[in-house]
Design brief:
By secondary structure, this protein is α/β, with parallel strands linked by helices. The protein contains 11 helices and 22 strands. The longest helix has 20 residues. The radius of gyration is 23 Å and the shape is elongated.
Length: about 475
């Protein structure tokens, strides 16, 4: 990595009070930066010192990184989807899974050079994780139209993001040159008279402030999901009704953005957007996403459909229906389907990310009662849906045109009749996963000032680096 190489090459045998590198945040980006730096020092026979600063407690840390399933858009050879950069360029509002859950762009604003570099780096990063003990599960998907250029294939680490974090930290802890500071909130950057960044001012768990001096600073501390004030300011009203999808997100308080802006960093992307996902309201675990909204119907608390569940393939619509649930449906929606779909998809990732069994009944009225819905209204909605479906063949491997006519809204693909008992359902709500916008960086992770020049000594990575754009949440 060019960033790591630059830092290591600048080592001068710093005193005990000054670190060669200060990393803020211990998620994927921060942990990878820390370990790369330590290994590069060892390879070159240099003694480098790094401080890893984490606001969270050791068991809750890492933003969303340790809690995600970490579905990766890779082929059988761990190459990244070659079409992703083109989708990012052409998309209007498009949700797409990438490496380490790299997700959203809209209106074609994503930096194409950044996207191209990411595609080049992905196989290297994947092999790095494998070499450090992460086991990848390779999955051939036979039911869900992925529309990836990976031949209906994707990858996920055994044990999810937690396995990645554990593997990286197992290696980090083997080095003597690292100091890990838990429950330490970075709040301000330290600067020299000429504007060079020279460390971080932090608040310890006892409430007292102290300074952590460093020759370089990497900000990898996520977005502002855990900051209600910033959510209200940038995203808009009613964000207080959104729960966080993972416990670690409460530590993503936007201080990385604030620190960068204080020293004149430019902003990349629109901070007026956020990413949500529909989760099982009964779940006792984080990230309990109900992925398969395409393959049945989704209704509100009045048993009315409100979104075209077959508008596009799953990864192009799962965020949008979650935003609709939050914005217009009082945070209450319900997925309904039947035996035909459940037999095809279970066991599997589409409906088994939650730790709860779906509600089930031999009648639609019985299912409605278990979901807390009006039995007559749910039966009426399903009957109207079934009666409006055309005679096209049901084909999960394409946008099949098996649709309804005369409904509001119509379902434009995969409108399979819901008529084979038992019937199944999940109660769902939207939860906040991450925010958009960040600090503008170049391809070497250097944070850029509003004038376009790099701010000396300051770098950013991960969610904070501001690749993603979206304005659909308002």
């Amino acid at each position: 990595m060019s960033f790591v190489s630059e830092v290591v090459s600048s080592l001068t045998g710093a005193s005990a009070e000054v670190y060669d590198l200060v990393v803020v945040g211990s998620g994927f980006a921060g942990s990878m930066t820390t370990l790369n730096f330590l290994e590069e020092c060892k390879k070159l026979g240099k003694r480098g010192k790094v401080a890893l600063i984490e606001a969270g407690k050791e068991g809750e840390r890492c933003g969303a990184s340790r809690w995600t399933m970490a579905y990766l858009r890779l082929d059988k050879d761990n190459n990244f989807d070659s079409d992703w950069k083109h989708e990012m360029k052409a998309s209007q509002v498009y949700a797409c899974q990438g490496v380490l859950d790299s997700p959203i762009a809209a209106n074609g604003l994503a930096d194409q050079e950044y996207c191209a570099r990411m595609e080049q780096e992905v196989p290297i990063t994947a092999q790095y994780l494998i070499d450090h003990g992460v086991k990848f599960n390779h999955h051939d998907e036979k039911n869900v139209l992925l529309e990836f250029k990976t031949n209906q294939h994707f990858v996920f680490p055994e044990g999810g993001g937690h396995a990645i974090i554990n593997a990286l930290f197992d290696h980090i802890r083997k080095f003597e040159g690292v100091t890990i500071m838990w429950e330490t909130q970075a709040e301000h950057l330290l600067t020299q008279d000429d504007g060079t960044i020279c460390g971080v001012k932090v608040r310890k768990s006892d409430g007292r402030m102290t300074k952590v001096h460093g020759k370089k600073v990497m900000l990898a501390c996520g977005g502002f999901e855990g900051n209600r004030e910033m959510l209200g300011k940038y995203v808009g009203p009613r964000t207080e009704h959104l729960e966080l999808i993972a416990p670690g997100l409460k530590y993503n308080t936007g201080f990385g953005l604030k620190m960068g802006l204080e020293v004149g960093a430019a902003v990349a992307g629109s901070m007026s957007g956020m990413h949500c996902e529909l989760v099982d309201t009964r779940a006792t675990k984080p990230d309990a996403v109900i992925w398969g909204h395409n393959y049945g119907i989704v209704v509100n608390k009045h048993c009315k459909r409100f979104y075209d569940e077959g508008k596009r393939h799953l990864f192009a619509t799962f965020e949008m229906i979650a935003l609709e649930t939050w914005r217009d449906q009082d945070q209450q929606s319900y997925f309904v389907t039947d035996k035909t779909i459940m037999d095809r998809f279970r066991p599997g990732w589409v409906y088994d990310t939650t730790d709860q069994e779906p509600e089930q009944s031999d009648t639609l009225e019985g299912l409605a009662e278990k979901l807390g819905l009006d039995p007559k209204e749910l039966k009426k909605t399903v009957d109207e849906f079934n009666g409006a479906i055309n005679e096209n063949e049901f084909d999960l491997m394409k946008l099949d045109g098996k649709r309804t006519t005369g409904l509001s809204p119509d379902k434009t693909n995969w409108a399979q009749p819901i008529n084979t008992p038992p019937f199944y359902g999940y109660p769902m709500k939207a939860q906040l996963t991450f925010t958009y916008g960040g600090l503008k960086c170049d391809l070497d992770s250097r944070v850029l000032a509003t004038t376009g020049v790099p701010i000396p000594g300051l770098y950013a990575a991960g969610e904070l680096s501001g690749l993603f754009y979206n304005e659909v949440s308002r």
